[in-house]
């Protein structure tokens, strides 16, 4: 991927992909590093929802896959019985990432400032984003880089729910309906070059909803 793929300004970048600038602003314009400075060792959705996510991963992630966990935290929700290769986490808080025993390596990077991933092309079999896509201000730029680091035939799963940090989530995810949000993520993946895009409702009963959008390289 050449450097020319990514614009320096989030607004210019999103306009380039046919999306309005106003969708990608947030209430808190201070540096993301300030917001994520303190670790949050908490679950952001219900236990039943996390169990449903792990169950989804059982069929989505093949044995011995190299996995990229983007916008990662203190747990990756991967099924413990599945033997994996590398599990690489990239997130915003070093303490949270260091506490994640499911990761084999990790690094800190603000994807809103630097959407190019620090990995070689065709390095991973699966990429995961869990209840965090709403914080990306340059989502297609990030997903173009994800596409680059995935191997041919590899897949991405973007899991969403209805909870978010309201000051850091982009306007679109606070004003659009559920269907519109899922279709927006479908649009992101399509523009980033993914195919066979699927919208899946994995919501468990009596728990937070779980919507997953997948795509294949």
Quick synopsis:
The protein has 217 residues and is α/β, with parallel strands linked by helices.
CATH fold description = Rossmann fold
Treating each run of at least 4 consecutive H or I residues as one helix, how many helices? 7
Poorly predicted regions = 1-11
Order of helices and strands: HHHEEHEEHEHHEE
The CATH homologous superfamily name equals Vaccinia Virus protein VP39
Radius of gyration from the alpha-carbon trace, in angstroms: 16 Å
Write out the strand line-up for the largest beta sheet, numbering strands in chain order.
3-2-1-4-5-7-6
CATH class: Alpha Beta
Number of domains: 1
Overview of the molecule:
With 217 residues, the protein is of the alpha/beta class. The chain has one domain (3-216): Vaccinia Virus protein VP39 (Rossmann fold, 3-Layer(aba) Sandwich). Helices cover 28% and strands 21% of the residues. The protein has seven helices and seven strands. Strands 3-2-1-4-5-7-6 form a seven-stranded mixed sheet. The protein is globular, with a radius of gyration of 16 Å. 39% of the residues are buried. The model is unreliable at 1-11 (pLDDT under 50).
